[in-house]
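User: I want to check something. If I give you two sequences, will you return the structure for each one separately, not as a complex?

Assistant: Yes, each is folded on its own. Here is the first sequence with its structure:
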Amino acid sequence: MAEAHQAVAFQFTVTPEGIDLQLSHQALTEIYLSGVRSWKKRIIRLKNSVVTGVYPASPSSWLFVVIAILATMYTRSDPSMGLIAKIQEHLPVSKSMSTQCQVVVSAVLFSTMLWLLLIFTMRLCLKQLLSYHRWMFEQHGKMSNTTKVWVALVRIFSGRKPLLYSYQGSLPNLPVPAVKDTVKRYLESVRPLMDDDKYELMTKLATEFESSLGKRLQWYLKLKALWASNYVSDWWEEYVYLRGRSPIMVNSNYYGMDLYVTPTPIQAARAGNSIHAFFLHRRKLNKEEIKPWLLRSAVPCCSYQFERMFDTCRIPGAQTDSVQHWQDSDYIAIYHRGRYFRLRVYQAGRLLSPREIEYQIQRILDDPSPPSAGEAKLGALTAGDRIPWAKARQTYFSSGINKRSLDCIERAAFFVTLDDEEQGILGDDPQASLDRYAKSLLHGKCYDRWFDKSFSVVYYKNGKNGINAEHSWADAPVLAHLWEYTLATDCFQLGYNAEGHCKGDVDASLPKPQKLNWEIPPECEEQITQSLAVAQTLADDVDFHVLSFQDFGKGRIKRCRVSPDALIQTALQLAYYRNRKTFCLTYEASMTRLFREGRTETVRSCTNESCAFVRALEGGEAAEVCRRLFRSASEKHQQLYRMAMTGAGIDRHLFCLYVVSKYLGVESPFLKEVLAEPWRLSTSQTPVQQAELFDIVNHPEYISCGGGFGPVADDGYGVSYYILGENMINFHISCKHSCPDTDAHKFGAEIRKALHDLIQMLSPSPREATFTAQSRPEAKKDL
């Protein structure tokens, strides 16, 4: 209990002689330094709020405008055309001021109003400029004169040295597409997946919807778009994520892997460096020093998802969950061998050094204390169904010591698991060990992660690490930005000494990490057991395979003058067709962060063009015919991707129309059919956003293995791919053992073969005339 006593600033004892008051100098110093740190953060936030609020101008430009107006008046000119005199007449304290002072005050007030008007005009102009998206549809490397002028204007109106959130007020709102256009695009997307009778029925339902109910729903949706910053994002977060009552483990959460290399085999040292790096990133985030993400170095993307990265937790509810965000926590919550600990990472107002964090982590690893009754598998509540967890939280964790301990976990900066297993590329079968590594990050033991936290970091016994993230608060590219920074800072900036420990010295007077206490009744333990059973069944059903494809990468694909993403998506269509002898509705995630509070849109990458190409290739058509059809499929895919990014997608619009219909209490057979269609192939690419942090050419081992997610449909596949440098593509493939038609390893083999077949078809080769004759028997043999 030493740390508890150190936290008390004063103690007193009542004696016959009076009250004996004892002040703790150390505790008072801690309180003072903590207050200083808190006020520094408030000042920084206030400063950033002012800088962001006046962007694209700067606070110093106000002084320039004031001096310019006063200088003009000194020349006996009136730039205000009489407004300064009007202001002077209505000054409330005019009688107590000299005439000259009144003139100066009036001029300053006019200058301020003029400055604010200029800011508003510049922001409005920038917002209109950012609504232009024709540049995205132009051929790569060939920019029109209109786009060149547009880029120059964007850079002029964008100001200098923007902060992370500087562009937020200038981003355009997501436009609401016309119902007619969305329905047309939808019918085109499902044509290759339906027979004539089914398609005719769907066309009839769509026509009826477009001409009647669709107009009414669209009116309400446009009304919301006028009022809200984004007509999709709040409903998407609530109805897709927070209202889901099934487990979020596997079904919603996703993961990211470590580097190929392990910089140190010491678990505590790896944790020390990377935890320190996480807090360095949070410091940059609080100061808004992270650069806004710019497309083509000019077009800004929305940054609002960064706001809830740290100090955030999903809170279970009976009908819907909520996402709670707190101010900066000065500690993290840690799980190790069934015990929960609270580790403060700030001491005397400063961030602990990596070596000091390592020292504290090692204390936890060496702590022999046993877990309390029911504590060891408490985390299973966050892995099971949401309603039992919500009821248990209300019944057993709403007061007393359990509430204090739960608050400590939920309000922590993030969650850490010190795993007692070894993971990574191990032993004689590196492929199988990589698959086990992925499954461990996705669900672990189902009770040793806190799946509700915005993200949980896992440190394994052999120095490997990884991250598991809750999905409702942000999408994968936002977390990937944090993960890239942490991995790079860990290895290239902080580093380790010759023994593998963190660099620096240790303050031996640091208080020990605080073990959390619990009083869990038998009824709660029973619920923990039930939740664990549900989670374990779900985890055991997941079939996972990580395909590290190193035969070629985006370098060779680009030499064929093909979009790498388009080729990969076509390869997935070819692999699925060979695997299942049919096509399926395919989901590819695209971002809509060109708009304020934008998140994602769906690219339906199974198209008429891609299906025609696959049929031609499998039917033995000539190589030239296949190449032509492939180019058509590739161009169609890029067109759909660009339309999704620019607000002309299909699925988010139909989803919001469906939500409006539910609010109005009306049924739409068309929308009901659309929302019931299963995504049997769900795909996503996570791009490398900070390539400058890594020297991939000279140190190719210092790159992440990527990340993945669980299958969306019970009879389908989840595929996450990560394009690494010029010569590697990693695929994270998931499905379910319970489905006899899916197999992650077989599908991975089909993807590998499809990639080879496509690159061989596209590459000039003297054997191209015999290509199709050779490839067809191989495909049948593999199947």
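And separately, the second sequence with its own structure:
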Amino acid sequence: MLQICRSGELSRESLPPHILVLPSKLPRLHFPCVARAFSGFNHTGRSFSTNPDFVEQGQKQNSRESRVSLDFKLQCHSRTLFSPARSSSGNVKKRRYGGVLPSILRSLVSDNDLEKTLSSSCENLNPKEQTVILKEQSNCERVVRVFEFFKSLKDYEPNVIHYNIVLRALGRAQKWDQLRLCWIEMAKNGVLPTNNTYGMLVDVYGKAGMVKEALLWIKHMRLRGLYPDEVTMNTVVRVLKDAEDFDRADRFYKDWCIGRMDLNDLELDSMIDFDNGSSSAISFKHFLSTELFRTGGRNPVSESFGSSDTESSMRKPCLTSTYNTLIDLYGKAGRLKDAADVFSEMLKSGVAMDTITFNTMIFTCGSHGHLPEAESLLTKMEERGIAPDTKTYNIFLSLYAGAGNIEAALEYYRKIRKVGLFPDIVTHRAVLHILCERNMVQEVETVIKEMEKSGIHIDEQSLPVLMKMYIAEGLLDQAKTIFEKFLLGYELSSKTSAAILDAYAERGLLAEAEAVFYGKRDHPRQNRGVVEYNVMIKAYGKAELYDKAFSLFKSMRNHGTWPDECSYNSLIQMFSGGDLVDHARELLSEMRAAGLKPKCQTFSSLIACYARLGQLSDAIDVYEEMISAGVKPNEVVFGSLINGFAESGTVEEALRHFRMMEESGVSANKIVLTSLIKAYTKVGCLEGAQHVYEKIKELDGGPDNIASNSILNLYADLGMVSEARCVFDSLKENGGADGFSFATMMYLYKSMGMLDEAIDVADEMKQSGLLRDCSSYNKVMACYVRNGQLRGCGELLHEMINRKILPDTGTCNVLVTALKKGGILIEAVRQLESSYQEGKPYA
């Protein structure tokens, strides 16, 4: 996060950019449970209470820290006199050079032939001037070309400063092979690395995400007999902090302070090979373990560090940048007291504070819910003559947004201009995200107008957020306008395009999604990204336009884009859900032939489809294919198979797969156990069904209505009235009784000759509003007819017709029975039956 420059200037960001991009998703920095509010600044004489809504989900610390209440006294009342450090976050003027350098630099920028320009103007430069030329090159390729030219000069003397510049450029460009060769060349030329060299290498490897490899440079440095200086130590701590290895970062810093460097945990055997994607056969691990450690001109030193004065002497940091890194480290680690101690030590030691110091402390306090303390820090910052910058206000904007205080967040947005600063891209991105997430359309448009007045354009990250808001509010014209306006000046990335497609697809706006996907752009890319195809395929699938989805999938390769695992997984699951099992199976085979690994969910969807269609042998084939592919089945897979066998009445197979599931360590859920009840119900096995039902009762939430209805149905078939009534009453108490539950109880009572009880259930079903379809009406009317309540049957029939529910064969049978019981002439009854058979259901 903090980029250290040896010249003493700070060219660093006070906070990672992701913090302010999505204010609603601020990272929560955890710390031990705070027993009471921390005291605030002593100079104010006030105590600020902790935000009660803040959920403290602290990482486990040692028991001592857990017991100690956090007394976060920043002690800004220190009387130490100091001058504020020059802020690095303001506008830094570009260094001006004298002599011939300005004209040479201009020529190098304007002339296409770099070597020709170098030959005509750079042959007689001294080493310092050569250094300036190297440093001012805009990219890695130009740095290397300029360096090669200097080396070709007759009187050129290799020096470590030039190699440092080249190594840094290569590392930032992640050209690891070239860096390796440059390192070897440096050693061959007798140029020995310095602290600057190692600090820079740690920095570039750390920023590339290669933390273990970065730390190996420190081990190499120690083997060379060099001890890290403060800047190098700071770089190592920062790399470990950014990798969230907080404990090791803290340990490294404290070891450095006492002159000890314990590197025993940095073993080469634990390193992972780094594949740089080039044609070189030399792995990164091989480079580290052979050429790197064998290259150099100094003899290794003893493992017993601390033998020299440099190693054994006590030391403490004196650079502002180091204290800033430590504050950020402890803040991210959730160790607020340690962060406060560093801040206080900075004051006591007279180390100059800068804007980054306060920005880091403000964010550390605020992100832990201590916004009053953050506000006090802002006041203290201004009292000490350190001017807040735009980043300071951005931090407050995001902190208040994360706390749900939108008015306070917007107030900080307005403050930026009031104090004479200007909102930057992070400011606008943050405020637009805040407003869009809450669908505050008018406020959003006010911000956009302010941006346009200042000549600032909407950035790409904000575009899908804005469009999603407009789409959600039904303002499709505004969404289209802002999209087209963006395309006039900028190219749309695949990721952003996919986000916009998804925003339309989620609302079922396929025509608009297609317009974005197929539309022409001023800056057309050669190929659309696979992520765009995947989103569009899912959109078609959601609309059940399977032919369109498959057609788009097949067209991908013709446009130079190859489907990935997501493409296949989506289509297979889509086809399986639509019972297009043959297409799904073919795609699964094609996917595996392409060397892509299907997800468990993909196999599961296909197995479920076969089981649903009763093709259990095919379901087993896919299951075995899944096992052979090394994909572990989950409870959904086993549940689909068990349910399929249960529906087919193959209880032994259902139980066998249940045992397989238990043996594989997969826990049975309610769905699986309910399927088992179904299986037992099919064969009338009461004991097995009851055993499984008792198991379900032990699970969280107990049995659902499906499991209860299954066991209820079994009790009804077996004529077990009291047991059925117990389950039915439980369903009603839990609000889970549905039409099936009532119909089952009516069936049970009727079959047992308990007509009054059947009528009571029928009335209760009617009053519960569960008469929603023809089948439910038929069951209640049949119950009334059976009990001789023909008027009630007639009233239900009229209600059914008035609700436009079309009678079916069951309705006709109930009416025929009712008419016969009512003494209607047999000819009239036959006429009714004839009308229904002729397709006149309302006769």
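Because they were folded independently, the notes below concern the second chain alone. The radius of gyration is 37 Å. The longest helix spans residues 476-489.
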